[in-house]
Structure formats: structure tokens, C-alpha cells
Amino acid sequence: MSVQLKAAARRLQSWIKNDAIPLWLERGLDPQTQAHYERLLPSGAPDLESSVRVRVQARQAFFFTVSASRGWCSQGQEVAQNLLGFVQKYATHPTAAGGYTHLMDKHFKVVDAKQDLYDHAFFILANAWCYRAFGDKAALAEAEKIVAHLDERFGSVYGGWVEGDYDYACRRQNPHMHLFEAFLALYDATGDAKWLARVGELFALFQTRFFDAEQQVLFEFFQNDWQRCADAKGDVVEPGHMMEWVWLLDWYSRRSGRPVRQYTRVLYEKGIAIGMDKSSLLFDAVTSDGSVIDRNKRCWGITELIKASLVQIREGNPNAEAIAIKAVNDLFDYYLCTATPGSYVDQRGAQDEVVVDVAPASTLYHLIVAAVELIDHCDGVYNDLYT
């Protein structure tokens, strides 16, 4: 392992521990409710006029729980449990007998009560982590309650779950990817094989629906029966999600013994071939032949490239370490480069110019997982975050 990769790990750890955690503790939390703001402005001040997605509370609860578990944030447990407690008190769905609402206004009052599958994946993840890190049995019970609610209200005869309790144009692989992650986290937190069985069900969906073996890509949007959408949405490929699946499949393989390298290698190599701009940033969306649909590049795509590259290093890819090192450098050069230490740029454009300069709180979920994965890889412990 190179000195450069170890230096990259230390650099990212320092940014999380010494810049991001203090900033978001100080400016991310509403002093009255202890709920989390949606985002920070370029000045580093919270955006007090923005509406707030309910799932931001879950993703930030995860961020602070992991921070606490690493010994990086002494207040992490209190913050995380306050965030989840706030949601249970103020954003529980009023009539659905389970689950949460979707959107609050700037005063943290619910303005959109729909239930969304993607949102709930993160509440399962956050509660799994609160149980794992703090022994919070109520959090585990809440995670189980959410899963039961999804099964009862949103389970699909075609596999997986529908998008929610609202009309939708298509089904997405993305919520199922994050449920794959959440069930793995529940398995690691409890050792209960029923959660690994759930992951296996989603692995089958990946094999048969999300991944196209002929074109060697992961597709995003589907009809109710999991046939690809017949319109242009059916052609959408997100390189960042291909990288994210490399990491998730590797994690699943190490828990289940299932071989996955036939997928991880292809997803990584094809994702880079069709999805990487000349600057080495990942496009937000392309087609399977590499035609670019969206030339913008979100911050989170680079975090997933880092994680996938670590998997590929372990699998013997001779190019992966150099890609990982450059990706960390690019993360700092293009995104973690604001005047406010601990904040970040959300999105770059076609010419790598800044197009979204606010810092969504939800991106910290991606950043801390990338940091922990990189640290543990350099320490010779693979996915210690979940072990």
C-alpha cells in the first residue's frame, strides 16, 4: 500500500473530524427543536428559508452516530437520538399507522405527508446504527416496525416495494439499493440471519432487473413489473450508483459468501469507461453507450468512486489505487474547497464550474462512509464500519 493512499486517508479523516463535525454541530442544528437544517449557504450559515426533507434527519443521525462510534464526536449519541426523537414526535405519518412524512417547511412543520420508500431506507439505516453503536433497543424496534410497515403497505407482487403512497411514473432501483444497505446494517448490528435473507432477495433483483449483463450497466428506472421504462428514462445510467453497488456487493459477499466479482469488476470498469469526464469527475447521468445525458457532476459520485476503487484494489485491479488517490485529491480540489472549513460544493457543471454552491446536509452521509472505508482499508480492516 502506497504512502500516498495512507496520506489521503489521514487527510479525509482530519477533514471529517476537525472541520465537518464542528461546523455541522455549530450551524446545522436548529437551537429550538434540535432538528437539522436542510443545508448550509456558501457563507457557512444555515439556510433558514429552505424547506427540510424529513430524511435529512435520518441521514444526519447516521452521520453523528458513526462519528460517535469512531470517537470523533462526544455529542454524537445525543445529537443522533434527538434527531430521531424529533422525527418520531413531529413527522410520524398522522394516519398510516407507521412510517414518516416527507417534507417540512422552514419552521419544521410537515407540509407534505406522502410516504416515500427512499426516505424510509435511511430511517432503517439510522435506527440500525443507533442500536449497534449505543445498544438502543427502542431504535431496533423502530427499524423492525418500519420494515413491517413497508411490507404491509408497499410490498409488490413483482418483488421489492413500490415507490410510496403517491402516484409515480416509474419505479427506481435507488431506494432498493439503500434498503440493501440498511438490511446489511441490521444484519451486522444484530447477527440475525433474517436480515441477510432480505439482502439476498434484493441481490436477486439486482441480478435479474437492475443489472443488464449484455450492456454491462446498472439501469435506474422501471415499470411496475421491473421492465425498463420504454421512454428516455429507461436509458438512464448513473455512474455513481454503479460505483456504489461495487461497494455494496463486496460487503454482501463478505457476509454471505456469494461470489460477486463478475459484477464488481464490470460495474467498475464500465462505469469509468462511460461515466468519467476528462477531469476524472463522474457525470451525473449517461447512457449505456457513453452518451452523456447530464454533464453535471455531484460531490457524492466521487465518494462512491473512492469506495469502489478500494474494493478493486483488494481484488487486484492494478489501476485502482491510483484512481483512488486521484479521487480523494479531486474531492478536495473540486468539492471540499469552500471558504468555510467543513462545508462543500454540491455540484460542478459541464466545464467543472460550480453550479450548486450550497452544501446539502445529506451529503455528509456519503462523505463519512468514504472516510471510514478509506481509513479501514489502510489499516487492513475491510468495512470495519460494519464489522
The amount of helix comes to 40-55%
Number of helices: 12
Oligomer: single chain
N-end to C-end Cα span: 22 Å
Identify low-pLDDT runs.
none
Q: Biggest sheet: strands, sense, closure?
A: 3 strands, antiparallel
Just name the CATH architecture.
Alpha/alpha barrel
Give the strand tally. Answer: 14
Q: What is the average of the pLDDT values?
A: 97
Beta-strand percentage range? 5-15%
CATH class equals: Mainly Alpha
Taken in chain order, the helices and strands follow as HEEHHEEHHEHHEEEHHEEEHHEEEH
Q: What number of domains?
A: 1
> Under CATH, the topology is which?
Glycosyltransferase
Shape: globular
Identify the strand order in the major beta sheet. 2-3-4
Rg over CA atoms, rounded to whole Å, is 20 Å
Structural class: mainly alpha
How would you describe this protein?
The protein is mainly alpha-helical and 387 residues long. It has helices spanning 3-27, 55-69, 76-90, 117-134, 137-154, 174-190, 193-210, 239-256, 261-275, 299-314, 320-335, 363-378, and strands at residues 39-40, 52-53, 103-104, 110-112, 171-172, 211-212, 217-218, 221-222, 285-286, 292-294, 297-298, 347-348, 354-356, 359-360. It has a three-stranded antiparallel beta sheet. A three-stranded antiparallel beta sheet has the order 11-12-13. Strands 1-14 form a two-stranded antiparallel ribbon. The longest helix has 25 residues, at 3-27. The radius of gyration is 20 Å and the shape is globular.
